[in-house]
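C-alpha cells for chain A. Residues wanted.
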C-alpha cells in the first residue's frame, strides 16, 4: 500500500464554489486547497473547467463528507472507486474523511457520532482498511465534534486513538473540534491534543464556531477563529511539529481579504514554531 502523501505544506484554504472564479482569476497566497469530492466529481461546464484550471496549478487534498465510516450500511465501494478516479484525474494524492456516520438505510445529511465502544472500533477500523485497500493508499481520519455520546464505554480520546491504531491510518487533526468538545464535554483540550499520535498527522483543520452558551459551543465553520483555538494550534506545533493546516469556512463566508488574513495567521504561527525548532536544533 502506498503510504506517500500529497506534497502539501504551509497554510491551505477550503475551496468553495462561491469564490472559485475569484481565485482562478486572481490566485491568493494559499499553499494548497481542499475540496469535498462529492461536490466536484460530476462537475462540468464552466465550473468544471475552472476547477481543472486550479488543480493543474495548485496542490489539492480531498476531504470526504458522505463515506459514513461508522454506519452499518454496506460500504459504498462504487463511490470509493469514483473518488479514486477523481483523484487520479486531478493528481490529488491525499483523501481524508470524518470519524462519524451519516447514513442508516439512506443518507441522514448530518455527521453523527459513533458510539465509543470496542465493537465500534473494530467495525470502523475494518471499513477504513477496506477503503485504503481500494484506494491503494492510507487515508486520514478526522476527529469530529459531537454533542452526545450514547453507549459510551471509553473516552473520545481512547476511541479515536484505538481506531487509528487498528486501521493503521493517518490523522486529519481538527483543532477547533478538540476545543469545542473540550468545552461541551468538560475535558482538558491540551491533554487530548498531546495524547494524539503526532507522527500520524498529515494535515490539520482550523475553523470558527458558534457560542450557544458558556458551556455549549456549536461547530459551524461560520465565524472567525477565536484566540484559544489559535493558541491550541500553536500547542499542536509545539508538541507534534509544524504540519500543513487548512482554514475551513462554510457559512457567512467573508471577502477573500478576510479569509487570507486568517490563512496568514496560520502561516505566522507556523513560521514562529519553525524558527523556534530551528533554534532548538542549532
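Reply:
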Amino acid at each position: 500500500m502506498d503510504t506517500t502523501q500529497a506534497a502539501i505544506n504551509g497554510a491551505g484554504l477550503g475551496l468553495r464554489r462561491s469564490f472559485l472564479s475569484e481565485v482562478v482569476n486572481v490566485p491568493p497566497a494559499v499553499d494548497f486547497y481542499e475540496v469535498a469530492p462529492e461536490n466536484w466529481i460530476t462537475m462540468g461546464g464552466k465550473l468544471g473547467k475552472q476547477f481543472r484550471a486550479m488543480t493543474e496549478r495548485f496542490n489539492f487534498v480531498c476531504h470526504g463528507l458522505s463515506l459514513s465510516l461508522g454506519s452499518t450500511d454496506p460500504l459504498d465501494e462504487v463511490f470509493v472507486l469514483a473518488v479514486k478516479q477523481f483523484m487520479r484525474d486531478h493528481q490529488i494524492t491525499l483523501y481524508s474523511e470524518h470519524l462519524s456516520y451519516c447514513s442508516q438505510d439512506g443518507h441522514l445529511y448530518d455527521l453523527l457520532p459513533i458510539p465509543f465502544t470496542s465493537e465500534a472500533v473494530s467495525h470502523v477500523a475494518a471499513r477504513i482498511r477496506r477503503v485504503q485497500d481500494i484506494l491503494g493508499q492510507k487515508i486520514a481520519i478526522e476527529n469530529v465534534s459531537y454533542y452526545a455520546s450514547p453507549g459510551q464505554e471509553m473516552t473520545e480520546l481512547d476511541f479515536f486513538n484505538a481506531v487509528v491504531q487498528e486501521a493503521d491510518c493517518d490523522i486529519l487533526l481538527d483543532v477547533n473540534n478538540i476545543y469545542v468538545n473540550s468545552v461541551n464535554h468538560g475535558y482538558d483540550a491540551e491533554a487530548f491534543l498531546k495524547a494524539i499520535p503526532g507522527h500520524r498527522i498529515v494535515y490539520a483543520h482550523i475553523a470558527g464556531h458558534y457560542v450557544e452558551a458558556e458551556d455549549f459551543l456549536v461547530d459551524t465553520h461560520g465565524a472567525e477563529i477565536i484566540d484559544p483555538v489559535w493558541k491550541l494550534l500553536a500547542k499542536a506545533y509545539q508538541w507534534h511539529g509544524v504540519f500543513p493546516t487548512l482554514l475551513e469556512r462554510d457559512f457567512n463566508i467573508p471577502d477573500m481579504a478576510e479569509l487570507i488574513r486568517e490563512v496568514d495567521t496560520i502561516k505566522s504561527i507556523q513560521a514562529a514554531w519553525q524558527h523556534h525548532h530551528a533554534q532548538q536544533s542549532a
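The CA atoms of residues 81 and 134 lie 7 Å apart. DSSP finds nine helices and twelve strands in the chain.
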